[in-house]
Design goal:
The chain has 395 residues and is α/β, with parallel strands linked by helices. The protein folds into 2 domains: 184 residues, Rossmann fold (3-Layer(aba) Sandwich), CATH 3.40.50.980; 153 residues, Rossmann fold (3-Layer(aba) Sandwich). Helices cover 34% and strands 18% of the residues. The chain has 12 helices and 16 strands. The strands form 2 sheets. A 9-stranded mixed sheet has the order 2-1-11-10-12-13-14-15-16. Strands 7-6-5-3-4-8-9 form a 7-stranded mixed sheet. Strand 6, helix 6 and strand 7 form a beta-alpha-beta unit. Helix 2 packs across helix 7 and helix 4 packs across helix 5. The longest helix is centred in the N-terminal third of the chain and has 18 residues. The termini are close together.
Length: 395
């Protein structure tokens, strides 16, 4: 079927082509957005908000440290094993700015899965949260990892509050099993030392690999899909094209630098990685990171703090939220976009969500190898339940 077969099926405002050469790399998208949206909020978590300018500074410090305190070279692999916390985007964009290839790693992996992924990817460095230190210690001798960067939940909080959170996580909630990794450098130290260094820009092209994304959709051991800067930039531009759909007022549905996107799905997974880390960044929008979406009361309390305009989720999460009595009390007046992916959406869930929030859930289809969005429904009343929509522009 011809790609242009779909062009007359697209809603008003959505272009039918993308300019793949608009950017030379993910890093260029990132650096341009950080300049353009410098004073806008980029990511919030645990009561702390980083602006785009702060995210740029922290990631430059991270890149500078990697370049001058390790012998990692462009093209080397760095594994990032963290839930949705502020250190995640800093590490990912910092690593890319140093020319490294990011290996996204699920923090809930077993030792066996970690060993496989670290060896298979050839990772030479690992950024992890101290809660997983014991598992890191177990698998380390079987891997080629030479550099460890250890984050703690409170790293980016004001000193006293950060100390308090770290103490509660460790001593009260007993969430940090004992381990011994004396060679690990703390994330805070990396940022502190990196601030004094200037990072050297690395020439990157659309053909360079940006991410090794391990896919769960395979039999046997997970395989690492090689996603280039070109793959990620293309998908950003494709999703961006969908965002330019006209709303009921004839204006662009999602406005650059003005939207608040709730991010409960894990950023290490390709769906949220592209939607929250990549696509929201190119539009200068604000991501609210939910570290533990299974804590539904905590999640709803966080939702109550924001006038959110977009939410990315999946069927089980929508059901869990709606089953909580506090959900109905939330303000949905700004909610324009609810996206569902990962698994099929149940019709009853979608209808109940629309009744409660006034926003229709939009389904799409993608897979890790297509980084990931391949097709999606239009937003609003044009969305057809039970379908994956039409191919995104340029697919």
């Amino acid at each position: 079927m011809q790609a242009d077969f779909w062009n007359d099926k697209r809603p008003a405002g959505v272009p039918s082509t993308i300019d793949i050469n608009a950017y030379a790399s993910v890093v260029e998208v990132f650096e341009r957005s950080c300049k353009r949206f410098a004073d806008r909020p980029a990511f919030s978590n645990l009561g702390v908000t980083l602006t785009y300018a702060e995210l740029e500074r922290h990631s430059a410090a991270f890149a500078g440290w990697l370049q001058q305190h390790t012998d990692l070279k462009p093209g080397d692999r760095i594994a990032v094993q963290m839930p949705n916390v502020l250190q995640y985007p800093i590490a990912v964009f910092g690593a890319m700015r140093a020319g490294l290839i990011v290996v996204n790693t699920n923090p809930l992996y077993t030792e066996r899965e970690m060993r496989h992924q670290f060896k298979d990817s050839g990772a030479r460095a690992l950024v992890y949260l101290n809660m997983f230190g014991k598992r890191v210690q177990e698998v380390l001798p079987d891997t080629g990892i030479e550099y460890l960067i250890e984050a703690k939940m409170g790293d980016l909080l004001p000193t006293a509050k950060g100390w308090l959170i770290n103490t509660v996580v460790d001593k009260v909630k007993k969430m940090v099993p004992a381990y011994h990794l004396p060679q690990a450098v703390s994330f805070k130290q990396v940022l502190r030392q990196g601030r004094e260094l200037s990072h050297k820009p690395v020439p990157l092209s659309l053909d360079d690999i940006a991410v090794l994304q391990y896919t769960g959709g395979t039999t046997g051991l997970a395989k690492g899909a090689m996603l280039t800067h070109g793959n990620l930039v293309a998908n950003m531009l494709q999703v961006l094209a969908c965002f330019s759909q006209h709303g009921p007022d004839g204006q662009k549905l999602l406005k650059d630098g003005q939207e608040v996107m709730i991010a409960p799905l894990p950023l290490y997974h390709i769906y949220a990685f592209t939607a929250n880390c990549m696509c929201m960044m190119v539009t200068g929008n604000h991501n609210v990171l939910i570290t533990n979406p299974r804590d539904i009361p905590g999640f709803i309390k966080e939702l109550g703090k924001w006038r959110f305009s977009a939410l990315l989720g999946l069927n089980t999460l929508f059901v869990a939220l709606m089953d909580h009595p506090g959900f109905r009390q939330l303000d949905f007046s700004a909610l324009k976009v609810t996206n569902s992916g990962g698994t099929a959406l149940v019709k009853a869930t979608a209808e109940r969500w629309e009744d409660l929030t006034g926003c229709r859930i939009v389904e799409g289809y993608g897979l890790t190898e297509t980084s990931p969005v391949a097709s999606t429904n239009p937003y609003g009343k044009l969305a057809r339940l039970g379908t994956v929509g039409i191919p995104v522009a340029g697919t």
